[in-house]
TrEMBL record, chain A:
PROSITE patterns: ABC_TRANSPORTER_1, ABC_TRANSPORTER_2. It is a peripheral membrane protein. It holds the Pfam family ABC_tran. This is Ribose ABC transport system, ATP-binding protein RbsA. Keywords: ATP-binding, Cell membrane, Membrane, Nucleotide-binding, Repeat, Sugar transport, Translocase, Transport. Residues 11-246, 263-507 form the ABC transporter domain. It comes from the Bacteria. Its main location: membrane. The lineage of its organism: Bacteria, Pseudomonadati, Thermomicrobiota, Thermomicrobia, Thermomicrobiales. The keyword Transport applies. It comes from uncultured Thermomicrobiales bacterium. GO terms for molecular function: ATP binding; ATP hydrolysis activity. The keyword Ribosomal protein does not apply. GO terms for cellular component: plasma membrane. SMART domains: AAA (SM00382).
Amino acid sequence: MIETANHDLLLRMEGVTKAFPGVVALADASLRVGRGEVHALVGQNGAGKSTLMKILNGAYRRDGGTVVLDGSPIDFRSPKQAQAGGISTIHQEINLVPYRSVAENVFMGREPRRFGMIDWPRMNRSAREILSRLNVGVDVTQPLLRLNVAVQQMVAIARAVSFQSKLVVMDEPTSSLDEREVATLFAVIRGLKADGVSVIFITHRLDELYEVCDRVTIMRDGRTVEERPMGEISKLELVATMLGKELGEVRRTGQTGFGESQRHGRGVLLEASALSRGRALRDASVRVDAGEIVGLAGLLGSGRTEVARAVFGADPVDAGEIRFRGESARFDGPGDAIRAGIGFCTEDRKAEGIIPHLSVRENLTLAALPVLARAGVVDRGRQREIVDRFMRRLGIRAAGPEQPIRELSGGNQQKVLLARWLCLNPKLLILDEPTRGIDVGAKAEIQSLIDELAGEGLGVLMISSELEELTEGGDRVVVLRDGRTVAELSREAATQDAIMAAMALGPAQPEAATDPAIA
Amino acid sequence: MVTTTDVRGDRQARSWDWVGSRLQQQGALLALVALLALGWARYGDDGFVSSYNLVSALRYNAMFALIALGMTFVLITGGIDLSVGGVAVLASVVAAELSPAGLWPGVTGAILVGVAVGLVNGGLVAGFGIQPFIVTLATLLAARGLALILAGNEAAPVDFESNFLQLDRIVGGVSLAVIIAAIAYVAGSILLNLTRFGRHLLALGGNEEAARLAGLPVARTLVAVYALSGGLAGLTGAILAAQTFTGNPNEAVGWELSAIAAVVVGGTLLTGGVGSVWTTLVGVLLLGLIINLLGFENLDPYWQNVIRGGFLLVVVVLQRRLTERRGSRRIA
């Protein structure tokens, strides 16, 4: 199958490796894209998709491996070179100039000139031609910012096409589009395909893959692990491969620090129902009892973090009800949620968690300052006492409380952030990927700590991409898909396969029923 | 075991980091000491280091010190306050107009005017998310304009009969302005280091999103910091009126930039999240005394700003290099 496809291969990347100081981003990545093919590239965060694409378009230089485009080996040193060589990239965020006209954006840097001055009529005409080939009819003289995001996306594609690109890389182009806009984009992709242009399509939305892609390459941990025609791989198999699980793998591996003790709910703590917000959340519901760990599962973009932020009052919701400890609780901001007894450890420690310049002490007591201050003056004695207590209890390894937090390892930073909430004695703790990027030892420590806290009556809502963490740690697992709650699995029912099936397929679809692995 | 290897590999880098951060914090202090030593060596006790020279230099620079103190707080949040020069002259005119009523009405009025402009700044920055640069540039122009309108395009005289001029009296050998500035710096240091508000400022400048998610009152803190900066500029205006005997709407041109220069020379990062009150004081003295020393060198006064500008550039380049090295180490 691949042999026959070889004749018409446009791009061949093989054995590509790339290491950054301390991290191997690509261990052995390969990618083969046929001429006029729409090729899906999938993998979890950190699988190496972006690194591979950056090597392809010259943003990074590879350490090893071969890249052959159209029969000749290539080694681009900059995105500009790659563009000249026929590879264009359309990023998730649109890299165009909002205040300039559509035509100027299409031809920026290569404006047609006449007597040394820009030939406006010719530039507008050419831009109109290209866009109409993409079935997009817009006034090319109006500034880009007047157009909606989808049309801006089309302008970016028009720019790519105007370079006579042979290959267009689209990195999550649909994340900010609505359904109708997505349909338009897909029509454009099919048009490119008909013109013999190849497309590499990166998305986290499974349904989209099946709608437009011909083949798929799956990456995991810096390696290419699978390459298949889209029609020959089921959604379930695709998700299992992405996550690195065998179909039918049901056993509990015992690798995590979570205990086996069954906790029993002690009354409903949080009840969020039918939350919706734009396209991110459509009908998400989750319940957490006191003393219970509820796992929140879902692929990237399924709305896991959005649910957490909505409950925490960090983002407003369009509709839905949130009840906390029996009372209606649509918090106006994190401050209200914190006062009510909720803590939220964010997914992105660096961007949303730590204050890098400040010390362990300051970071740990950041949310507790209102409690620690008397007439506005921080009570240093009590602050020290709390910091000492939690540094000991959580085993935070630092030179001392005054060490800047940026110098700590990821695991210890995470413990400080956990302590930031625990010192407030919360009723509910929301953890978004609590063990991501943390070494094995610290990970087990954090997991057994969560276990212990739940034993003391704390309700925990734990978002995780790691299936073991969910099956072993969670008393229940709620699965989200495209912003909807599609399954709620009891501890017994929450096998890795069952979670994956719900993540990939949603609730009770015919495919799920016929798949032998789930029966 | 992972941690121990980490520490060992990092030790070299960390000690450099330490030297770097000391330099950033104390570099200005070293320069100040060197400058005083140089002045003393060249002109002895009678000239540059004479008590008369230093006292009069301090009297004048007390005003910069107050403005720079407020600016320090604003810069720590990652913002900027360009309105302080305008606020100072507006406040000086108000103080002069109120001077017949006495010292306290004049000073209080000046401070209230400053706080009012600061509240407008903070409200627009926090409430509408407009860039501080634009907001405070607009209020700078507006405040100067208001000062001109209020004074009728000429200097408003201070009432010599009233006790307003007591604001510039000599207490224990130094101007009262110097004592006020000293008290303000002690209070400012307590505010930044010991109070909730001060810690919020640092957290907010270090990572605004993290601060928001930790439940900090981000908007309220921003409004308060601009009000504080405005209030200090207002107080400066009152002192200016007392020292010049007038509320002159054409005074204090470019003071906002001198204040920013002093804060940055002291080591506070323009990007926010890092800063200290005492290093700002050192920055103010350093820039002020350089000019003073140049006066002794019989250098053309036009060179003053060239020297100040050059100094600022050197410091900013150094800061950039220091933060860059830290940044790269964090990735590794």
